[in-house]
Amino acid sequence: MKLCFIGADHEVTGSCHYLEVGDKHILVDYGMEQGHISFEHVEIPVSAAEIDYVFLTHAHVDHSGNLPLLYARGFRGKIYMTRPTADLCSIMLRDCAHIQMQEAEWRSRKGKRNKDIKQIEPLYTMEDADNTLRHIIPCEYGKKIDVCEGVQIRFTDIGHLLGSASIEVWATEKNVEKKIVFSGDIGNNDQPIIKDPALTTTADYVVMESTYGDRYHGEEKPDYIAELTEILNRTFARGGNVVIPSFAVGRAQEMLYFLRTIKKEHLVTAVDDFPVYVDSPMAVEATEVFTEHAMECYDEEAMELVKKHINPISFPGLNLAITTEESRAINEEDTPKVIISASGMCEAGRIRHHLKHNLWRPESTILFVGYQSVGTTGRAIIDGADKIKLFGEEVDIRAEICKITGLSGHADKGGLIHWIEGFTERPKKVFLVHGEDSVCTSFANCLREEHGFSTYAPYSGTEFDLISGQIIKEGIPKEALRKTAKVSDVFTRLKAAGARLVAIIARSEGMTNKDKAKFADQIIALCDKWE
Questions:
Q1: Cα separation of 4 and 56, whole Å?
Q2: Is the peptide bond before 341 cis (omega within 30 degrees of 0)?
C-alpha cells in the first residue's frame, strides 16, 4: 500500500497524487499546471492504461484539467466525483479541449513559415474530453461508496467551490486497513452562496493543501459590497469601465451575488443605473449549474432568497455574452459598465480583449478578485508592470488597478489550522501540498512546532509506505528549466496506444482461449503491417 506525490508539491497548481492498494492503481486529481513552474514533477509510476480509478476533489482545472490527457493515453477506468463537480467538469473539460485545439492550430499555422517546426498536435482533443466524461461516476456527499474490494471512499463538502470535497479513502491490503484523507482545496468561511467547509474527524494520514498557510485574510470579515460599491462609484464618475478578470466557475457567481445586492439597494450613485456583462460562455453555463444545485450546496443566506423565489445570482441589467459578436459589441458601447470575463489570471480567453480596450484608459479600473499565480499576466499587472504584451503588441497600463482583499475561495492560515484541528485524534502524518515552496515548508513547521502534528512537505517523487508509515523514497526538487509545454507530438500518442494495448493484454486472462488466439493473431498482423 503506497502513496506517491506527483504534482502540486511545493507548488500551487497541477495537483496529482497516486495511490496503490493491492493490484489497484488510483489517482487523486490530475490537474494542469498553470503560470510559473518552479519544479519538474515526476511521471505517474504506471501507464495511463493501468490506472483503475480517479478520485476528483473538485472541477478547477488545476485539479481536473489533465483527465482528458489521461484518456488520450489509454485510461479507461472510472472517475468518481460529486454530482455538481460532474456537471461543472462537463463544461470545463470541453473548454480546456477547445483551448488546446485552438492553440495547436495557431502554433501550426505560425510554424508553416518555418520549415524546422513540425505540425503541432493538441495535448488532447474535444473527442478525448467527451469520452472522459463518459467515465464519470457522480456521487452524493456523505455516502460511503464501495469502489472495489479493499477501497471505499466518501466525499465531504469542503466549501471551496460548488461540488468541492475532501475525500476519505479507506484502503485495505493484507488485512491491514488505513484511512487517508485528501483535503482538496479547503474553502474560506463565510463565502457567499456555498456552505462553509465541513470537518473530518478521523484519519491515519492526511494530505492537506497549504495555499495560504503563511497569511491571514484579516481579523474582521471584509465588507465586500461596500468595497465594491466604492470602486464602482469612483470609476463610473470618471466615465470608465470596471473590468473584472474572474474565474468562470465560482468567483464569477460570487461577483454576481454582490452586484445583485448593490443594484437592488441602489448603492451606486455615480450613474442612474449600469449594465453588467458576463462575457464568458463557460461562466454562463456554470451559473446555470449553480442554480440547478442550490438545494444541496447553497448556504442558509442564499437559500433564504431561493425560498422567496429570488435567484441570488441574477438581476435586471445582467447581460450574458455568448457569441463572438456579442463579446465585441461590449467594447463598442460607451456606457460605463461592469465586465466580468475569464480567464481569472488573464492568461487566455476573452478577458485579454477587454484588457486591451481598457488597460490604457486612466478612467477605467481593472479589479482583481482572485489568486494570481507567479508568471501569469494577472500577477504582472497586480505587481505594478508599466505595460504588458497582448496579441503581439505592447499596451501601456494607465487604468486604476485594484484588488479586493480577503475575497478568496481558499481558507487562510487560521482556517487551515481550524480544519486540521477538527481531527479528534492526531493523524500519524500530515503531508502538506498545494502551496508555494516556502509556504509548504513554513506551514509544516507551524503545525509541527505549535500544534503538535507530525508533518512532512514532500517534493514530487516522494513515495510513502502506508502500512509501515515510512518514507520509501524522498523526492528531489529539480528546478524546471522551462514551462511545461501545452502541446504534444504524435509519437507521444503512439506510445500511449502501445501502453493501452499492454494493459488490455494484462487484463485478458478471463478471455476464452479462442478469443485470446484471435486477439494474438490481430496483434501479429498489425505488427507485420508496420515492420
A1: 16
A2: no
Q: Is the pLDDT of residue 187 over 90?
A: yes
**pLDDT tens digits, residue range 266-305?**
999 999 899 999 999 899 999 999 999 999 999 999 999 9
Higher pLDDT, 281 or 79: 79
Per-residue pLDDT for 495 more than 70?
no
Burial, 131: exposed, middle or buried (Cβ in 10 Å; 0-12, 13-18, 19+)?
middle
Q: Which 3 state secondary structure label does DSSP give 186?
A: coil
Task: Round to whole Å and give the CA distance between 352 and 359.
Answer: 10
User: Given a cut of 70, is residue 21 above it in pLDDT?
Assistant: yes
- Its pTM stands at 0.85
3-state SS, 85-131, equals HHHHHHHHHHHHHHHHHHHHHHHHHHHCCCCCCCCCEECCCHHHHHH
Q: Which residues of 209-242 are buried (b: 16+ CB within 10 A; e: fewer)?
A: bbbbbbeebeeeeeebbebbbebbeebbeeebbb
Residue with cell 463610473: 236
Q: Alpha-carbon distance 292 to 455, whole Å? A: 40
Phi, psi of 391 (to 5 degrees): 55, 40
User: Helices (DSSP H) in 308-350: which residue ranges?
Assistant: 324-330
Residues sharing a CB contact under 8 Å with residue 232, sequence separation 6 or more, in sequence order: 242, 262, 268, 270, 274, 338
Task: Please list, in sequence order, all residues whose beta carbon lies within 8 angstroms of the beta carbon of residue 27, skipping any fewer than 6 positions away.
Answer: 16, 17, 18, 19, 44, 51, 53, 54, 55, 70
Q: Which domains does the chain have, with CATH numbers?
A: 2-216+409-488 (3.60.15.10), 224-403 (3.40.50.10890), 495-530 (no CATH)
What pLDDT does 483 receive? Answer: 41
Q: How far apart are CA 391 and CA 33, in angstroms?
A: 22
Contact predicate 184/58, CB 8 Å: yes
End-to-end CA gap in the chain: 40
In Å, the largest CA–CA distance within the chain is: 80
Output the CA angle 308-311-317, nearest 5 degrees: 125
DSSP code, position 36: -
Q: Residue 50: pLDDT above 90?
A: yes
- Give Cα 111 distance to the centre of its chain: 31
Q: Which three cell numbers stand for residue 168?
A: 476519505
Go through 271-295 and write b for each residue having 16 or more CB atoms within 10 A of its CB, e for each that does not. Answer: eeebebbbbbbbbbbbbebbeebbe
Strand partners, 176: 173
